[in-house]
Write a structure and sequence with these properties.
Elements: H1 2-21, H2 28-46, H3 50-62, H4 66-82, H5 88-104, H6 108-128, H7 130-150, H8 154-174, H9 176-196, H10 200-220, H11 222-242, H12 246-266, H13 268-288, H14 292-312, H15 314-335, H16 339-359, H17 361-381, H18 385-405, H19 407-425, H20 428-438, H21 445-458
Helix pairs in contact: 1-2, 2-3, 3-4, 4-5, 5-6, 6-7, 7-8, 8-9, 9-10, 10-11, 11-12, 12-13, 13-14, 14-15, 15-16, 16-17, 17-18, 18-19, 19-20, 20-21
Amino acid sequence: MEESNNTLIKELKSKIEELEARTDYEGRFVEIEDAYEKIKAVSFEEGVEYDAVMDYIDFLCNHAKDSKALKIAKELENIYDRDNNIKQEDKAVLWGTIGEIYDVQYSSEQCEKYYLRALRLREELAKTDPDRFNPDLANTCNRLGVFYRNQDKPDEARDFYLRALRLYEDLAKTNPDRFNPDLVDTCNTLGVFYDGQGKPEDACDFYLRALRIHEELAKTDPDGFNPVLARKCDNLGSFCEHQGKPEDACDFYLRALRIYEELAKTNPDKFNSDLAGAYDNLGIFYYIHNKPDEALDFHLRALRIYEELAKADPDKFNHDLAWKCGNLGDFYYYIHDKPDEALDFYLRALRLFEELAKADPDKFNHDLARECDNLGDFYSDQSKQDDALDFYLRALRIYEELAKTDPDRFNPDLAESYRIFGVLKNYNKWLKKSYQLALKYPQDPRCRRIINTLKKNFE
Protein backbone atom coordinates (compact mmCIF):
# COMPACT_ATOMS: atom_id res chain seq x y z
CA MET A 1 0.00 0.00 0.00
CA GLU A 2 2.77 2.42 0.98
CA GLU A 3 4.66 1.66 -2.24
CA SER A 4 1.55 2.21 -4.39
CA ASN A 5 0.90 5.54 -2.65
CA ASN A 6 4.48 6.64 -3.27
CA THR A 7 4.10 5.69 -6.92
CA LEU A 8 0.82 7.64 -7.15
CA ILE A 9 2.39 10.76 -5.64
CA LYS A 10 5.38 10.46 -7.97
CA GLU A 11 3.06 10.23 -10.97
CA LEU A 12 1.02 13.22 -9.79
CA LYS A 13 4.17 15.31 -9.30
CA SER A 14 5.27 14.47 -12.84
CA LYS A 15 1.85 15.45 -14.13
CA ILE A 16 2.09 18.80 -12.32
CA GLU A 17 5.51 19.46 -13.88
CA GLU A 18 4.15 18.66 -17.34
CA LEU A 19 1.12 20.94 -16.83
CA GLU A 20 3.27 23.81 -15.58
CA ALA A 21 5.28 23.62 -18.80
CA ARG A 22 2.12 23.85 -20.95
CA THR A 23 1.78 27.61 -20.70
CA ASP A 24 -0.58 27.73 -23.71
CA TYR A 25 -3.13 25.42 -22.02
CA GLU A 26 -5.75 27.46 -20.15
CA GLY A 27 -7.05 24.53 -18.14
CA ARG A 28 -3.70 23.67 -16.61
CA PHE A 29 -4.35 25.46 -13.29
CA VAL A 30 -7.53 23.50 -12.60
CA GLU A 31 -5.78 20.23 -13.37
CA ILE A 32 -2.76 21.16 -11.26
CA GLU A 33 -5.00 21.96 -8.31
CA ASP A 34 -6.83 18.67 -8.76
CA ALA A 35 -3.50 16.78 -8.76
CA TYR A 36 -2.38 18.58 -5.62
CA GLU A 37 -5.68 17.69 -3.91
CA LYS A 38 -5.00 14.02 -4.56
CA ILE A 39 -1.46 14.39 -3.20
CA LYS A 40 -2.80 16.13 -0.09
CA ALA A 41 -5.31 13.35 0.54
CA VAL A 42 -2.61 10.67 0.43
CA SER A 43 -0.16 12.82 2.41
CA PHE A 44 -2.57 13.49 5.28
CA GLU A 45 -3.80 9.89 5.40
CA GLU A 46 -0.39 8.21 5.23
CA GLY A 47 1.77 10.89 6.91
CA VAL A 48 4.09 11.29 3.92
CA GLU A 49 5.19 13.97 1.43
CA TYR A 50 4.38 17.02 3.58
CA ASP A 51 6.79 18.98 1.37
CA ALA A 52 4.41 18.44 -1.55
CA VAL A 53 1.57 19.86 0.56
CA MET A 54 3.70 22.93 1.23
CA ASP A 55 4.18 23.23 -2.54
CA TYR A 56 0.39 23.10 -2.87
CA ILE A 57 -0.01 25.89 -0.33
CA ASP A 58 2.50 28.01 -2.24
CA PHE A 59 0.64 27.27 -5.48
CA LEU A 60 -2.66 28.44 -3.98
CA CYS A 61 -1.07 31.62 -2.60
CA ASN A 62 0.46 32.41 -5.99
CA HIS A 63 -3.01 32.14 -7.55
CA ALA A 64 -4.80 34.36 -5.00
CA LYS A 65 -6.51 31.49 -3.19
CA ASP A 66 -5.35 32.56 0.24
CA SER A 67 -8.36 31.30 2.20
CA LYS A 68 -8.00 27.78 0.86
CA ALA A 69 -4.22 27.93 1.37
CA LEU A 70 -4.73 28.98 5.00
CA LYS A 71 -7.21 26.16 5.64
CA ILE A 72 -4.74 23.54 4.37
CA ALA A 73 -1.84 25.19 6.24
CA LYS A 74 -3.78 25.05 9.51
CA GLU A 75 -4.60 21.39 8.90
CA LEU A 76 -0.91 20.73 8.34
CA GLU A 77 -0.08 22.67 11.51
CA ASN A 78 -2.34 20.35 13.51
CA ILE A 79 -0.52 17.35 12.06
CA TYR A 80 2.87 18.90 12.89
CA ASP A 81 1.76 19.57 16.47
CA ARG A 82 0.88 15.89 16.95
CA ASP A 83 3.92 14.41 15.20
CA ASN A 84 7.13 14.53 17.23
CA ASN A 85 9.16 13.45 14.20
CA ILE A 86 8.57 16.69 12.32
CA LYS A 87 11.79 18.67 11.88
CA GLN A 88 11.98 22.06 13.55
CA GLU A 89 12.99 23.75 10.30
CA ASP A 90 9.83 22.40 8.63
CA LYS A 91 7.73 23.90 11.41
CA ALA A 92 9.50 27.24 10.94
CA VAL A 93 8.75 27.18 7.21
CA LEU A 94 5.07 26.43 7.86
CA TRP A 95 4.71 29.14 10.51
CA GLY A 96 6.39 31.68 8.28
CA THR A 97 4.04 30.74 5.44
CA ILE A 98 0.97 31.07 7.69
CA GLY A 99 2.27 34.47 8.76
CA GLU A 100 2.55 35.52 5.10
CA ILE A 101 -1.03 34.41 4.40
CA TYR A 102 -2.35 36.34 7.39
CA ASP A 103 -0.32 39.35 6.18
CA VAL A 104 -2.07 39.23 2.81
CA GLN A 105 -5.42 38.95 4.61
CA TYR A 106 -4.61 42.02 6.77
CA SER A 107 -4.91 39.95 9.95
CA SER A 108 -2.07 41.76 11.70
CA GLU A 109 -2.37 40.10 15.12
CA GLN A 110 -2.20 36.57 13.69
CA CYS A 111 0.49 37.58 11.20
CA GLU A 112 2.73 38.92 13.97
CA LYS A 113 2.12 35.82 16.08
CA TYR A 114 3.26 33.41 13.38
CA TYR A 115 6.17 35.53 12.17
CA LEU A 116 7.48 35.69 15.75
CA ARG A 117 7.01 31.94 16.23
CA ALA A 118 9.05 31.35 13.06
CA LEU A 119 11.65 33.85 14.27
CA ARG A 120 12.15 32.22 17.66
CA LEU A 121 12.46 28.76 16.14
CA ARG A 122 14.98 29.96 13.55
CA GLU A 123 16.99 31.73 16.24
CA GLU A 124 17.36 28.40 18.04
CA LEU A 125 18.25 26.58 14.83
CA ALA A 126 20.83 29.22 13.88
CA LYS A 127 22.58 28.77 17.22
CA THR A 128 23.36 25.16 16.41
CA ASP A 129 23.99 25.55 12.64
CA PRO A 130 24.43 29.21 11.65
CA ASP A 131 25.71 28.47 8.14
CA ARG A 132 22.55 26.59 7.33
CA PHE A 133 19.90 28.62 9.13
CA ASN A 134 21.14 32.22 9.25
CA PRO A 135 19.81 32.89 5.72
CA ASP A 136 16.29 31.89 6.84
CA LEU A 137 16.69 33.95 10.01
CA ALA A 138 17.73 37.00 8.00
CA ASN A 139 14.74 36.57 5.69
CA THR A 140 12.39 36.37 8.69
CA CYS A 141 13.93 39.54 10.16
CA ASN A 142 13.33 41.34 6.87
CA ARG A 143 9.71 40.18 6.78
CA LEU A 144 9.17 41.43 10.31
CA GLY A 145 10.76 44.74 9.34
CA VAL A 146 8.26 45.11 6.51
CA PHE A 147 5.41 44.03 8.78
CA TYR A 148 6.23 46.58 11.50
CA ARG A 149 6.81 49.33 8.93
CA ASN A 150 3.32 48.68 7.55
CA GLN A 151 1.97 48.73 11.11
CA ASP A 152 3.53 52.19 11.56
CA LYS A 153 5.99 50.93 14.18
CA PRO A 154 9.24 52.40 12.83
CA ASP A 155 11.43 51.53 15.82
CA GLU A 156 10.60 47.84 15.62
CA ALA A 157 10.91 47.91 11.83
CA ARG A 158 14.38 49.52 12.01
CA ASP A 159 15.60 47.00 14.58
CA PHE A 160 14.61 44.03 12.42
CA TYR A 161 16.01 45.57 9.24
CA LEU A 162 19.32 46.14 11.01
CA ARG A 163 19.33 42.57 12.35
CA ALA A 164 18.83 41.31 8.79
CA LEU A 165 21.61 43.60 7.61
CA ARG A 166 24.12 42.25 10.14
CA LEU A 167 23.24 38.67 9.25
CA TYR A 168 23.63 39.29 5.50
CA GLU A 169 26.92 41.11 6.12
CA ASP A 170 28.30 38.03 7.86
CA LEU A 171 26.90 35.69 5.22
CA ALA A 172 28.31 37.77 2.38
CA LYS A 173 31.79 37.65 3.91
CA THR A 174 31.95 33.89 3.50
CA ASN A 175 29.78 33.54 0.38
CA PRO A 176 29.61 36.86 -1.50
CA ASP A 177 28.31 35.39 -4.76
CA ARG A 178 25.24 34.02 -3.03
CA PHE A 179 24.49 36.70 -0.45
CA ASN A 180 25.67 40.03 -1.86
CA PRO A 181 22.36 40.41 -3.76
CA ASP A 182 20.47 39.96 -0.46
CA LEU A 183 22.80 42.44 1.21
CA VAL A 184 22.11 44.95 -1.57
CA ASP A 185 18.35 44.53 -1.19
CA THR A 186 18.56 45.07 2.57
CA CYS A 187 20.71 48.20 2.13
CA ASN A 188 18.17 49.55 -0.34
CA THR A 189 15.33 48.70 2.02
CA LEU A 190 17.05 50.62 4.81
CA GLY A 191 17.65 53.53 2.43
CA VAL A 192 13.94 53.69 1.61
CA PHE A 193 13.08 53.29 5.30
CA TYR A 194 15.31 56.16 6.47
CA ASP A 195 14.18 58.34 3.57
CA GLY A 196 10.58 57.80 4.67
CA GLN A 197 11.56 58.67 8.24
CA GLY A 198 12.95 62.03 7.13
CA LYS A 199 16.59 61.02 7.59
CA PRO A 200 18.09 61.62 4.13
CA GLU A 201 21.74 61.38 5.23
CA ASP A 202 21.21 57.90 6.68
CA ALA A 203 19.21 56.97 3.59
CA CYS A 204 22.00 58.16 1.31
CA ASP A 205 24.58 56.11 3.23
CA PHE A 206 22.63 52.92 2.60
CA TYR A 207 21.87 53.77 -1.03
CA LEU A 208 25.60 54.31 -1.62
CA ARG A 209 26.47 51.05 0.14
CA ALA A 210 24.07 49.23 -2.15
CA LEU A 211 25.55 50.99 -5.15
CA ARG A 212 29.12 50.00 -4.24
CA ILE A 213 28.12 46.36 -3.90
CA HIS A 214 26.32 46.52 -7.24
CA GLU A 215 29.48 47.92 -8.80
CA GLU A 216 31.42 44.90 -7.57
CA LEU A 217 28.71 42.51 -8.79
CA ALA A 218 28.71 44.20 -12.19
CA LYS A 219 32.45 43.66 -12.53
CA THR A 220 32.04 39.90 -12.30
CA ASP A 221 28.69 39.67 -14.13
CA PRO A 222 28.15 42.82 -16.24
CA ASP A 223 25.30 41.32 -18.27
CA GLY A 224 23.39 40.40 -15.14
CA PHE A 225 24.02 43.47 -13.00
CA ASN A 226 24.77 46.46 -15.27
CA PRO A 227 21.07 47.06 -15.99
CA VAL A 228 20.37 47.12 -12.25
CA LEU A 229 23.42 49.34 -11.66
CA ALA A 230 22.11 51.83 -14.24
CA ARG A 231 18.72 51.96 -12.48
CA LYS A 232 20.42 52.47 -9.12
CA CYS A 233 22.45 55.39 -10.54
CA ASP A 234 19.25 56.85 -11.98
CA ASN A 235 17.46 56.51 -8.64
CA LEU A 236 20.37 58.10 -6.79
CA GLY A 237 20.31 60.98 -9.27
CA SER A 238 16.66 61.57 -8.46
CA PHE A 239 17.35 61.25 -4.73
CA CYS A 240 20.22 63.77 -4.81
CA GLU A 241 18.14 66.17 -6.88
CA HIS A 242 15.35 66.12 -4.32
CA GLN A 243 17.95 66.73 -1.61
CA GLY A 244 19.11 69.90 -3.37
CA LYS A 245 22.40 68.42 -4.62
CA PRO A 246 22.26 69.04 -8.37
CA GLU A 247 25.93 68.35 -9.07
CA ASP A 248 25.75 64.92 -7.44
CA ALA A 249 22.47 64.28 -9.23
CA CYS A 250 24.00 65.13 -12.59
CA ASP A 251 26.94 62.80 -11.94
CA PHE A 252 24.61 59.88 -11.24
CA TYR A 253 22.38 60.64 -14.23
CA LEU A 254 25.46 60.69 -16.47
CA ARG A 255 26.73 57.43 -14.98
CA ALA A 256 23.37 55.82 -15.72
CA LEU A 257 23.52 57.21 -19.25
CA ARG A 258 26.98 55.79 -19.93
CA ILE A 259 25.91 52.34 -18.75
CA TYR A 260 22.76 52.41 -20.89
CA GLU A 261 24.81 53.53 -23.89
CA GLU A 262 27.07 50.49 -23.50
CA LEU A 263 24.12 48.17 -22.97
CA ALA A 264 22.32 49.55 -26.02
CA LYS A 265 25.37 48.94 -28.20
CA THR A 266 25.26 45.21 -27.55
CA ASN A 267 21.48 44.80 -27.19
CA PRO A 268 19.62 47.76 -28.75
CA ASP A 269 16.27 45.98 -28.89
CA LYS A 270 16.28 45.54 -25.13
CA PHE A 271 17.94 48.74 -23.91
CA ASN A 272 17.25 51.53 -26.43
CA SER A 273 14.05 52.48 -24.62
CA ASP A 274 16.01 52.76 -21.34
CA LEU A 275 18.62 54.86 -23.14
CA ALA A 276 15.90 57.18 -24.45
CA GLY A 277 14.61 57.51 -20.89
CA ALA A 278 18.09 58.42 -19.66
CA TYR A 279 18.36 61.12 -22.34
CA ASP A 280 14.93 62.42 -21.32
CA ASN A 281 15.97 62.56 -17.65
CA LEU A 282 19.04 64.63 -18.49
CA GLY A 283 16.98 66.87 -20.75
CA ILE A 284 14.59 67.59 -17.91
CA PHE A 285 17.47 68.02 -15.46
CA TYR A 286 19.28 70.60 -17.62
CA TYR A 287 16.04 72.47 -18.31
CA ILE A 288 15.27 72.75 -14.59
CA HIS A 289 18.80 74.04 -13.99
CA ASN A 290 18.59 76.73 -16.69
CA LYS A 291 20.72 75.06 -19.33
CA PRO A 292 18.30 75.04 -22.28
CA ASP A 293 20.89 74.24 -24.96
CA GLU A 294 22.09 71.12 -23.16
CA ALA A 295 18.49 70.19 -22.42
CA LEU A 296 17.53 70.47 -26.10
CA ASP A 297 20.51 68.34 -27.12
CA PHE A 298 19.43 65.47 -24.87
CA HIS A 299 15.77 65.77 -25.86
CA LEU A 300 16.75 65.50 -29.53
CA ARG A 301 18.89 62.44 -28.79
CA ALA A 302 15.87 60.86 -27.12
CA LEU A 303 13.74 61.77 -30.14
CA ARG A 304 16.07 59.98 -32.55
CA ILE A 305 15.87 56.80 -30.49
CA TYR A 306 12.07 56.98 -30.25
CA GLU A 307 11.97 57.38 -34.04
CA GLU A 308 14.01 54.20 -34.49
CA LEU A 309 11.93 52.34 -31.93
CA ALA A 310 8.69 53.44 -33.60
CA LYS A 311 9.92 52.25 -37.00
CA ALA A 312 10.54 48.79 -35.61
CA ASP A 313 7.43 48.60 -33.41
CA PRO A 314 4.94 51.40 -34.14
CA ASP A 315 2.16 49.90 -32.02
CA LYS A 316 4.37 50.01 -28.94
CA PHE A 317 6.34 53.24 -29.46
CA ASN A 318 4.30 55.64 -31.60
CA HIS A 319 2.66 56.95 -28.47
CA ASP A 320 6.03 57.72 -26.88
CA LEU A 321 7.14 59.36 -30.11
CA ALA A 322 3.99 61.49 -30.26
CA TRP A 323 4.52 62.73 -26.70
CA LYS A 324 8.17 63.46 -27.45
CA CYS A 325 7.21 65.53 -30.50
CA GLY A 326 4.62 67.44 -28.48
CA ASN A 327 7.11 68.13 -25.71
CA LEU A 328 9.72 69.31 -28.21
CA GLY A 329 7.11 71.62 -29.70
CA ASP A 330 6.66 73.19 -26.26
CA PHE A 331 10.41 73.33 -25.79
CA TYR A 332 11.09 75.12 -29.07
CA TYR A 333 8.20 77.53 -28.59
CA TYR A 334 8.31 78.46 -24.93
CA ILE A 335 12.03 78.03 -24.17
CA HIS A 336 13.84 78.72 -27.45
CA ASP A 337 11.28 81.07 -29.06
CA LYS A 338 11.36 79.23 -32.37
CA PRO A 339 7.72 79.04 -33.53
CA ASP A 340 8.44 77.46 -36.92
CA GLU A 341 10.30 74.50 -35.39
CA ALA A 342 7.67 74.29 -32.67
CA LEU A 343 4.85 74.08 -35.23
CA ASP A 344 6.62 71.29 -37.10
CA PHE A 345 6.76 69.19 -33.93
CA TYR A 346 3.19 70.04 -32.89
CA LEU A 347 1.92 68.89 -36.29
CA ARG A 348 4.03 65.70 -36.15
CA ALA A 349 2.53 64.94 -32.76
CA LEU A 350 -0.97 65.65 -34.12
CA ARG A 351 -0.56 63.26 -37.06
CA LEU A 352 0.70 60.51 -34.78
CA PHE A 353 -2.17 60.96 -32.32
CA GLU A 354 -4.64 60.95 -35.23
CA GLU A 355 -3.32 57.57 -36.36
CA LEU A 356 -3.36 56.22 -32.81
CA ALA A 357 -6.93 57.45 -32.25
CA LYS A 358 -8.11 55.81 -35.48
CA ALA A 359 -6.84 52.46 -34.28
CA ASP A 360 -7.98 52.83 -30.64
CA PRO A 361 -10.25 55.86 -30.06
CA ASP A 362 -11.11 54.92 -26.48
CA LYS A 363 -7.44 54.95 -25.52
CA PHE A 364 -6.08 57.87 -27.56
CA ASN A 365 -8.88 60.36 -28.27
CA HIS A 366 -8.03 62.21 -25.07
CA ASP A 367 -4.42 62.64 -26.21
CA LEU A 368 -5.66 63.84 -29.60
CA ALA A 369 -7.94 66.41 -27.97
CA ARG A 370 -5.08 67.76 -25.86
CA GLU A 371 -2.85 68.08 -28.91
CA CYS A 372 -5.63 69.99 -30.70
CA ASP A 373 -5.80 72.26 -27.64
CA ASN A 374 -2.03 72.78 -27.84
CA LEU A 375 -2.27 73.80 -31.48
CA GLY A 376 -5.18 76.08 -30.65
CA ASP A 377 -3.02 77.78 -28.00
CA PHE A 378 -0.14 78.07 -30.47
CA TYR A 379 -2.19 79.66 -33.26
CA SER A 380 -4.00 81.96 -30.82
CA ASP A 381 -0.66 83.19 -29.51
CA GLN A 382 0.45 83.74 -33.11
CA SER A 383 -2.70 85.86 -33.73
CA LYS A 384 -4.09 83.33 -36.20
CA GLN A 385 -7.55 83.17 -34.72
CA ASP A 386 -9.24 81.19 -37.51
CA ASP A 387 -6.67 78.40 -37.24
CA ALA A 388 -6.90 78.53 -33.44
CA LEU A 389 -10.71 78.22 -33.55
CA ASP A 390 -10.50 75.22 -35.88
CA PHE A 391 -8.31 73.29 -33.46
CA TYR A 392 -10.21 74.41 -30.36
CA LEU A 393 -13.45 73.24 -31.99
CA ARG A 394 -11.89 69.87 -32.88
CA ALA A 395 -10.85 69.45 -29.25
CA LEU A 396 -14.31 70.48 -28.04
CA ARG A 397 -16.07 67.94 -30.26
CA ILE A 398 -13.80 65.15 -29.01
CA TYR A 399 -14.40 66.13 -25.37
CA GLU A 400 -18.16 66.10 -25.98
CA GLU A 401 -17.93 62.50 -27.19
CA LEU A 402 -15.62 61.48 -24.37
CA ALA A 403 -17.90 63.07 -21.75
CA LYS A 404 -20.84 60.99 -22.95
CA THR A 405 -19.15 57.80 -21.83
CA ASP A 406 -17.18 59.13 -18.82
CA PRO A 407 -18.64 62.46 -17.69
CA ASP A 408 -16.82 62.71 -14.35
CA ARG A 409 -13.44 62.34 -16.03
CA PHE A 410 -13.97 64.54 -19.10
CA ASN A 411 -16.57 67.16 -18.18
CA PRO A 412 -13.91 69.46 -16.64
CA ASP A 413 -12.02 69.33 -19.96
CA LEU A 414 -15.26 70.06 -21.78
CA ALA A 415 -16.05 73.00 -19.49
CA GLU A 416 -12.64 74.50 -20.27
CA SER A 417 -13.20 73.99 -24.01
CA TYR A 418 -16.56 75.75 -23.81
CA ARG A 419 -14.88 78.64 -21.96
CA ILE A 420 -12.08 79.04 -24.51
CA PHE A 421 -14.47 78.90 -27.44
CA GLY A 422 -16.87 81.31 -25.77
CA VAL A 423 -14.13 83.86 -25.07
CA LEU A 424 -12.66 83.73 -28.58
CA LYS A 425 -16.04 83.92 -30.34
CA ASN A 426 -17.59 86.15 -27.69
CA TYR A 427 -20.46 83.67 -27.43
CA ASN A 428 -22.34 84.10 -24.18
CA LYS A 429 -24.12 80.77 -24.77
CA TRP A 430 -20.81 78.85 -24.68
CA LEU A 431 -19.63 80.72 -21.60
CA LYS A 432 -22.88 79.84 -19.82
CA LYS A 433 -22.42 76.17 -20.78
CA SER A 434 -18.91 76.32 -19.35
CA TYR A 435 -20.10 77.89 -16.10
CA GLN A 436 -23.01 75.48 -15.58
CA LEU A 437 -20.80 72.46 -16.22
CA ALA A 438 -18.03 73.78 -13.95
CA LEU A 439 -20.51 74.15 -11.07
CA LYS A 440 -20.81 70.35 -10.99
CA TYR A 441 -17.07 69.93 -10.35
CA PRO A 442 -15.97 72.62 -7.87
CA GLN A 443 -13.06 70.48 -6.63
CA ASP A 444 -11.38 70.53 -10.05
CA PRO A 445 -8.94 73.50 -10.23
CA ARG A 446 -9.94 74.36 -13.81
CA CYS A 447 -13.60 74.41 -12.84
CA ARG A 448 -12.89 76.58 -9.80
CA ARG A 449 -11.16 79.10 -12.06
CA ILE A 450 -14.13 79.08 -14.43
CA ILE A 451 -16.57 79.57 -11.55
CA ASN A 452 -14.56 82.45 -10.08
CA THR A 453 -14.17 84.11 -13.47
CA LEU A 454 -17.75 83.79 -14.74
CA LYS A 455 -19.94 83.83 -11.65
CA LYS A 456 -20.47 87.61 -11.90
CA ASN A 457 -21.96 87.06 -15.39
CA PHE A 458 -24.43 84.32 -14.49
CA GLU A 459 -25.43 84.67 -10.83
